[in-house]
Amino acid sequence: MNLSPGSLVFAYHGPLMYEAKVLKIHRAGSNVVELMEGKEDDVDRYPRLKHLREIDTYFLHYSGWNSKWDEWVGIERILEHNDENKSKKSQLDSINKRPKISRQASPALSPLVRRQQPGSQSSKLPLQRRKRAQLLVLKYDDNIKHILVDDWQFVTRDHQLVSIPAESSVVKILQDYSQYRSPSLDETQKDVLREVLNGLILYFDKSLHLMLLYKYENQQYFELLQKETINDQTPPSQVYGLEHLLRLIVTMPAILADSTIDAVSMNVIIQELERILQWVSTHLNVYMGSYINTSPQYDALSRQ
Fold first, then answer.
1. Among 53, 103, 107, 247, whose CB has the most other CB atoms within 10 angstroms?
2. Residues 257-286: pLDDT tens digits?
3. Which CATH number fits domain 136-303: 1.10.274.30, 1.20.58.220, 2.60.120.620, 3.10.20.880?
4. Please, what's the b/e burial string for 84-103 (b: 16 or more CB within 10 A of its CB; e: otherwise)?
């Protein structure tokens, strides 16, 4: 995509897509931020870009939403503004329609306790590959679907945060899954499993701050960097847990669709991701994290 300030795009925000306008762009390694009407600004005036200097980032305004939701995102969350992606947005809107849920404010309550019981509506989410005429479908049950939607609501509407560091990290969850899955596999299949899981962990570490965090969570991430909870020896996959892992897994079909991976390998990955989601769905009581209320100071910083 050849984007410039003023470009219209679609952007992922949690389980949904929104129409958005690119207001500013920072190109990897550049000392300036591109603004509307061909203007530029000094990158040092944007403290949020301190840890994002070496990648392309885009400051988006979501159409019809208050400017408090404006945020810097990576290219992974952005889709071209065309009829195909408009149709995809409509599909996601339809699939994720749910009645509002009455929830208590207590951060100690699990999202599973606070949500409605899952209905009978199918949670299959088809994502059309944009570069190749093939349909990728990632199947997951209503438990996973409702967790994703509740997660979005807790963070973006209730202004709560997932408690970090997680009791069970992404690495721990995938290690447990590997121990469960490996005994039924031969050596070749075990090698494939290791490759898929290692790739998932690597992509999680590379993409967390670009496409897996909601705007309200960015300040929490920066605080973890400042405290060196996240560092060269302790990557995000050893700090964040199930909620953020699920956000990554359900976006993988769209990521794979834009890759050069061959169809056979792609199907192997999708099938393994589905097995992970099936297994996770039966172990939610073990791996689900809790949501915490934030302080007024955090709330003020997160809105800057």
1. 247
2. 777 787 788 889 999 999 999 999 999 999
3. 1.10.274.30
4. ebeebbeebeebbeeeeeeb
